[in-house]
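Think of the structure tokens as a kind of shorthand, similar to the way a musician reads notation: each symbol stands for something richer, in this case the local conformation of the backbone. In the example below we present two proteins back to back. Begin with the first one, reading the sequence and then the tokens, and try to describe in your own words what changes along the chain.
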Amino acid sequence: MTGLDGYTETTFTFEGTTRTVFRRGTGPAVLVITEVPGITPLVADFGRRVAEAGFTAVLPSLFGTPGKEPTAAYGAQTIAWACVSKEFATWARNKTSPATHWCKALARHEHEQCGGPGVGVVGMCLTGNFALAMMVDPVVAAPVLSQPSLPFVLNGAYKRDLNLSPEDLAAVKARCEADEDLCVLGLRFTGDFMAPGERFARLREELGDSFVGVEIDSSPGNPHGIRKMAHSVLTEDLVDEPGHPTRDALDQVLDLFERRLRPPA
């Protein structure tokens, strides 16, 4: 199965901005916010895994051509667009990407439609820290940051930046302090310069035990043969075999959704 077969295509409008949204499954909602270059077949496959686990996979199209296979040229085109878009804080420090406001509205809408204790959010790459920013809304109950890559790294200070305004960071920390069961799950490969280890170290400093960072060894000679430039934990670089660290990371994501989003019996 390729592309977006089996998904229902809808739209959602907030503050005059209308975007296409793909939905599949039933149960509490999980927003899968795509990585560069867009909703690729493997991003759609991840959404299918979420739906098969008993949730409603909700894939908003923020950029790119839904269902299109990734290529180097396609990825470069998307990054070039993001660099000049006002919706993404690609270079600014201590700033929340404006596109998260639309995503928060979609999360509230899907919670109303699907029910449950809240919604899950998975951000990837360009949108990796969207799940963190969206936590200012209490409807977000299960945030996952997969290879968070904004802002782009220009120097050491950028490596520690969380793509979050000070006000939003304070709100996120307050939620973590108030809910000891709240877990912010982060995923990255150790050799991924786009999602540097310093960013995860900052998250541990700010959020304490509420942040669980999964860092998968991609150093030369690593036991699983993971390539040096591995980046996309849940999609392009996923090895869907029991015992592989990327499959373990996928299982950890689905376990988080089960624990936080499944209504009590």
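Once you have a description of the first chain, move to the second and do the same.
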Amino acid sequence: MSRVLIIGGGAAGMAAAIAAAGCGHEVHLYEKNEKLGKKVYITGKGRCNVTNSCDTEELLKHVVTNSRFLYSSFYGFGNQDIMNLLERNGCPLKTERGGRVFPVSDKSSDVIGALSRQMKDLGVRVHLSGEVRELMVDDGVCQGLVLYRGKRQIWGDQVIVATGGLSYESTGSTGDGYRFAQEAGHKVTELLPALVPFEVKELVVEELAGLSLRNVEAVILDGKKELYREFGELLFTHFGVSGPVILSASSFVTARLKEKPLTLSIDLKPALSQEQLDARVRRDFEESSNKLFKNSLSHLYPAKLIPVIIGRSGISPEKRVNEITREERQRLLDATKHFTLTLTGTRGFKEAIITKGGVAVKEINPSTMESKLVKNLRFAGEVLDLDGVTGGFNLQIAWSTGWAAGSSIPK
């Protein structure tokens, strides 16, 4: 039996604690906050998108960075495993659109409650307000940790760093794990906010703030080169754009956006080809032939979008519909199928759901999460250079890597 010290009481830390204690080890979990799972508590807008119900190969496809590294851990402890663990501990789950899995209660606190019960049953000792100052590494071996309080040294046979990233600093994610890793000799790749809204150059977004569009297609371009294309829901904000389709895009283009602005092209009617949309517009125009142009578009667009579309079409809002030329109608179609905006940057870590970048995975054993540089030191969760799109994939990364770290400790 080993004495296992875990730093961080989020998703990865709790999974690691349950796995290690389940193998018979003495487990101590140190959490700097006054309660466990502070970031888990706010995920999914407080509902906690636990995982995604798709098969394992599909899970891997939704990981943006270093997906191959996760092959072993995803197959070792997958989505069905975390679902079974939660339901077994009194947190029934449901599956929603896109395979997203949530508690039936829609309360993230039920997820934390289930994990806490399991840890208690297994004898995990949880030390709240237990902020860790540094690791104790001597001659290439991690021998424990030092707490801030009283600079107290805690000795252990294995240490698992599961401190999270830099996103949502208010939950305690202040990058401690990156510092621990670097002090132990590990490389930390560039850290960027991910699953984060974009800022936009055009002031027109202020007019559209609060407008949510479902079933649109978003394409992000660097000149003529396509960087990202996805179908889904988009939200306009006072500073730019957000919503699931946009948040996922940030994981693919944030690094490029640091170098120069990019173009976002939104297809407002992706279910219709240009020809089909033209036929639809002509039919609407025939039914409203004597109306003013500005009063003829309510069947096609939300009210908030109509003045903006009119402005982009270049057609006078006071023009009669039956006077609109073919060329003008073409401009309306273009404004609908290619609603373009200039992306200038992203919001910061305070609004990012996750951190892109982290401890370089080439220095980590993918089966055990153990450091290849320092004996008896492991890393799990967001502190690693791993990230996925929205839909429960990032929490699955945390569960799987945490479990791999805790379950692979030798007896």
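Compare your description with these statements about the second chain. The longest helix spans residues 393-407.
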